[in-house]
Design brief:
single chain; alpha/beta; 12-stranded parallel sheet; 4-stranded parallel sheet; 17 helices; 18 strands; about 35% helix; binds 2-acetamido-2-deoxy-beta-D-glucopyranose; LRC31; Leu-rich_rpt; Leucine rich repeat containing 31; LRR_dom_sf
Length: about 500
C-alpha cells in the first residue's frame, strides 16, 4: 500500500513552485537559502507576493532586495512575515527609498530574526532622523556582525540612539557609517561605546563630520578594539589637530592593515605624533595620507621610517605638497623596499617632477603613471623625458607590468629612440601602449627598428598598442612576421588604413 503525502508536503511543493515562478519572473535563480532580488524593479505588489512566500522559505539565510526604488513605504507586509524565516542571517535593503514607516516596521520585524548577522540599510536618506525605532528594538546579545548605514542622512540624534545600542551588539565586526555628515557631534558617544565592541574589525567613518573631540574619543576606544583591521577616517576636514593626542593609542592596533586619513587636514603636530606610531603598526598594508596639504614639510621623518613596515604595499600621498626632502625620503624608501606595490603621488608642480624622476629611478614596482599629467602647461613633453631618463637606467623597473604612454606624440624621433633603447630592463612588462591621441596620425620615424629590437628583449610582452601610428607596408610586414620569426605571440594593435 502506497503512503499518501501529508498535506504539509503537498503544501510545501506548491509553495516552492510559487517561489520558483516568482524568481524566474524576476530573471533570478531560485534558491531556498538565498533570495537575491537586487535591482529587479520590484513594486509594492511584488513585496506583497514575496511576503506570502515567506512560509515556504524557512531555510532562507540571505535576502537581498537592494536597489529597488519603488518599494519605499511598502515594506510592512514583508516584515510581518519575517517570523517564518528566523534562520535569516543577511538582510540587504540598501537604496530602496525606505521611509520612516518602513524603518519602524523593520524594527518590529527584527524581533523575529534572532540569527541576523548582517544588515545593510545604506543609501536610504529618509532613515535620517528616524533610526531610533529600529535601534530600540535591537535586543541584548544581538548576533549582528555587520551594520552598514552609508549615506543615510543620519542626524546626531540617530548617532546617539545607535551609540546607546552598541553594547547590545557584542559581536559587531563591521560598522560602516560613512557619508553621514551630520552625525559628527554624536561620534564622541559612539566612540565611547565602541570600547565594548572588542571584535570590531572594520570601522568606516568617512565623511562623518568628525572633529577633534571625536578623534580623541576614538583614541580612547583604540585601547580595546584590538582586532581592528581597517580604519577609514577619510574626508573629515575638521579632524585635523585631533591626532596629536589620539595617535599614541593607535599603537594598540597591532592588526591594522588599512589606515585611511585622506583629506583630514592633518597638521604638523598630528604628523609628528603619527610618525611615532605608524612605523609600529606592523600589519599595515595600505596607508592613505592624500590631500593633506599641510604635511608636505613634515612627512619626511615618516617616509624614512616606512621601511619598518614589512607588509606595506601601498602608500598614497597625492596632493600633499611634498617637499624635496620628503621626496628624497620616499624614493629611498622605494629603493630599499621591495614589498611596496603602489605609490600614488599626484603632484603637479614642476619642482615635483625632478623628484619623481628620482622615485622612478628607485622604483622596484608597478607604478602609477598618473602623476605625469599636467594639462595646463606644455610640461608634458618634459615629463616624458624625465621618465625616459629614468627608464634608460632601467633595471630598477624590472617589476613594471603595464606601461601606458598613450598621447605622447610630441616626444619626437630622438625621444622614442632613447625610450626603446632604455626599455630593456623591463623584464616583466606585459602591456605597452604608445597609441596617439585620437584624431591625430603620424608616421613612425626611424625609431621603428629600435622598437623591433626592443621587442625581442621584452620577453614578457603580450600586447603592444600603436593606434594611429601610420605604418608603411614594409613596416607592417615586419610586425606581422615578428611573432613567427621570434616564436612570440604579441598582439599588435595599429592603424590599419590601407
Ligand atoms: C563595557 O566594558 C567595560 C570595561 O571595558 C565594562 O566595565 C562594562 O561593563 C562593559 N559594558 C557592557 C554593557 O558590557
Ligand atoms: C574609505 O571609505 C570610502 C567610502 O566607503 C571608500 O570609498 C574608500 O575606498 C575607503 N578607503 C579605503 C582605503 O579603503
Ligand atoms: C602645472 O604646472 C605649473 C608649473 O609649471 C603650475 O603652475 C600649475 O599649477 C600646474 N597645473 C596644475 C593643474 O597643477
Ligand atoms: C606630452 C604628452 O603627451 N605626455 C603624456 C605621456 O604619457 C603620459 C601617460 O599616459 C601622459 O600622462 C602624458 O600626458
Amino acid at each position: 500500500e502506497e503512503s499518501q503525502p501529508v498535506d504539509s508536503e503537498i503544501d510545501s511543493v506548491a509553495g516552492w513552485r510559487k517561489v520558483k515562478q516568482f524568481m524566474q519572473k524576476m530573471g533570478k535563480k531560485p534558491s531556498s537559502k538565498n533570495v537575491n532580488l537586487n535591482n529587479c524593479g520590484l513594486t509594492a505588489t511584488d513585496i506583497v507576493e514575496l511576503a506570502t512566500m515567506m512560509p515556504h522559505l524557512t531555510d532562507l539565510e540571505e535576502l537581498d532586495i537592494s536597489w529597488n526604488d519603488f518599494i519605499g513605504g511598502t515594506l510592512k507586509p514583508l516584515t510581518l512575515h519575517l517570523q517564518h524565516v528566523s534562520r535569516l542571517k543577511v538582510l540587504k535593503l540598501s537604496s530602496c527609498r525606505l521611509t520612516a514607516d518602513d524603518i519602524m516596521a523593520l524594527g518590529e520585524g527584527l524581533e523575529s530574526l534572532p540569527n541576523l548577522e548582517e544588515l545593510d540599510l545604506s543609501w536610504n536618506s529618509d532613515i535620517g532622523g528616524n533610526l531610533s525605532p529600529l535601534t530600540l528594538k535591537i535586543q541584548e546579545g544581538c548576533p549582528l556582525k555587520i551594520l552598514r548605514l552609508t549615506d543615510c542622512d543620519l542626524t546626531a540624534e540617530d548617532g546617539k540612539s545607535l551609540a546607546k545600542t552598541l553594547y547590545r551588539v557584542p559581536n559587531l565586526e563591521v560598522l560602516d557609517l560613512s557619508i553621514n555628515k551630520n552625525i559628527g557631534s554624536s561620534l564622541r558617544l559612539i566612540a565611547e561605546e565602541l570600547r565594548n565592541a572588542s571584535r570590531l574589525s572594520v570601522l568606516n567613518l568617512q565623511m562623518c563630520g568628525l572633529k577633534q573631540d571625536g578623534i580623541r574619543a576614538l583614541g580612547a576606544a583604540f585601547q580595546s578594539v584590538f582586532e581592528l583591521k581597517k580604519l577609514n577616517l577619510s574626508c573629515n576636514k575638521e579632524a585635523g589637530g585631533g591626532f596629536k593626542e589620539a595617535a599614541a593609542q593607535l599603537v594598540n592596533l597591532k592588526q591594522l592593515r588599512v589606515l585611511d586619513l585622506r583629506q583630514c587636514s592633518v597638521t604638523d603636530a598630528d604628523m609628528a605624533a603619527l610618525t611615532q606610531v605608524i612605523p609600529l603598526l606592523s600589519s599595515l598594508q595600505v596607508l592613505d595620507l592624500s590631500s593633506n596639504r599641510n604635511i608636505g614639510g613634515s612627512s619626511q621623518p615618516l617616509f624614512s621610517r616606512l621601511r619598518f613596515l614589512p607588509k606595506l604595499k601601498s602608500v598614497l600621498i597625492n596632493n600633499c605638497a611634498l617637499t624635496e626632502s620628503s621626496f628624497q625620503a620616499l624614493s629611498m624608501c622605494c629603493y630599499r623596499y621591495s614589498g611596496l606595490r603602489t605609490i600614488g603621488v599626484k603632484e603637479f608642480a614642476i619642482s615635483g617632477l625632478a623628484n619623481i624622476k628620482r622615485i622612478l629611478n628607485n622604483l622596484l614596482i608597478n607604478i602609477i603613471l598618473y602623476f605625469l599629467r599636467n594639462k595646463s602647461t606644455s610640461s608634458g613633453s618634459h615629463d616624458i623625458y624625465f621618465l625616459l631618463a629614468a627608464m634608460s637606467q632601467a633595471g630598477h623597473l624590472s617589476k613594471l607590468q603595464t606601461l601606458d604612454l598613450t598621447y605622447n606624440g610630441t616626444i619626437g624621433d630622438e625621444g622614442w629612440t632613447m625610450f626603446f633603447k632604455g626599455l630593456k630592463g623591463l623584464k616583466e612588462l606585459s602591456e605597452l601602449d604608445i597609441s596617439l591621441r585620437p584624431s591625430t596620425c603620424q608616421d613612425c620615424g626611424l625609431w621603428f627598428s629600435d622598437l623591433l629590437l626592443c621587442l625581442t628583449q621584452l620577453s614578457g610582452l603580450t600586447e603592444l598598442g600603436m593606434e594611429r601610428w601610420i605604418l608603411t607596408s614594409s613596416q607592417k610586414e615586419r610586425l606581422e612576421c615578428f611573432n613567427k620569426e621570434n616564436k612570440r605571440s604579441i598582439q599588435f594593435q595599429y592603424y590599419n588604413s590601407t
